[in-house]
Specification:
By secondary structure, this protein is mainly alpha-helical. The protein contains twelve helices and five strands. It has helices at residues 15-19, 28-41, 49-54, 67-88, 94-105, 107-116, 127-131, 138-156, 159-170, 173-176, 186-196, 239-256; strands spanning 5-6, 43-44, 203-210, 217-223, 232-236. The chain is globular, with a radius of gyration of 21 Å.
């Protein structure tokens, strides 16, 4: 396992700036759970209030929550990923580097990182959000990743330490992002696959909308006019997310169909 990174003893910014951050109180139970997360993060916090703040959703505390840390982490993430791509892909132009960065910082990629870090087990949510499935809500998981980036930076006051953590979380995602498939969303890839074989385009139907705004869940059905190809139904926090998830599963299903598909006459 990679060694756990710690905050510098002589930070770039003054310690008073870090201490000025108002963080929530930390219980013995949280400290115990944080030890597990620390091993996943590869970073040990000095100010234990920062990771608690980074994991606290506004449904639990409307004032002391991760929203400001998310703002900071989002900016840091864009810079770190952009810099990594710049050095790793010297022959790519600005347009392609921009698409590669967008792929790496989009919600789907952040959710993958959150799942690898087991963040769902550490989120601090209000009762209603917990009962509504907030621990597995894509937007919350993605926000928590960005918030932890901001928390690590404020705690360490060291961009190099923050960069090491973020790039370790990404693993080979950055190495694989140059793949053309990774740069296109699932709906685009499904459409191109069908067009290449001269099949009809897929149809997406909104089946159901559950709950009330802003916590609605959209259920979408994806239909492809091919034999032996069942419809795919998926849900998401927006219609776009549900359609993308359904398209991804439809692509996987089409690839698994063993018998050759006949072109429609």
């Amino acid at each position: 396992m990679k060694p756990i990174l710690h905050a510098n003893q002589t930070p770039l910014a003054t310690q008073s700036e870090s201490h000025a951050i108002e963080t929530p109180a930390v219980s013995a139970e949280f400290v115990q759970r944080l030890a597990v997360l620390t091993r996943k993060l590869g970073y040990a916090f000095d100010n234990l209030g920062l990771p608690k703040l980074a994991l606290t959703h506004r449904s639990y505390d409307s004032k002391k929550n991760y929203e400001r840390l998310e703002f900071l982490g989002d900016a840091l993430l864009g810079m770190i990923v952009g810099e990594a791509l710049y050095h790793r892909y010297p022959n790519q132009n600005e347009g392609r580097l921009t698409r590669m960065r967008a792929t790496l910082v989009r919600q789907e990629s952040l959710v993958t990182i959150a799942q690898n870090l087991d963040l769902s087990n550490h989120l601090i949510l209000g009762v209603g959000e917990r009962k509504g499935g907030g621990r597995h809500r894509a937007s919350i998981l993605a926000d928590a990743v960005e918030s932890l980036i901001g928390a690590i930076y404020l705690d360490s006051q060291d961009i190099d330490i923050t960069r090491q953590c973020v790039l370790a979380w990404y693993g080979d995602l950055i190495d694989n992002v140059n793949d053309q498939k990774a740069l296109k969303d699932a709906k685009s890839r499904l459409q191109e696959w069908l067009q290449s074989k001269q099949y009809d385009l897929p149809n997406y139907e909104l089946v159901e909308t559950r709950g009330n705004a802003p916590h609605q869940i959209f259920v979408v059905r994806c239909q492809v006019n091919l034999p032996n190809c069942p419809d795919i139904t998926e849900s998401g926090e927006s219609r776009r997310i549900a359609e993308q998830k359904a398209a991804e599963l439809m692509i996987n299903q089409l690839h698994k169909i063993s018998s050759p598909l006949k072109k429609r006459s």
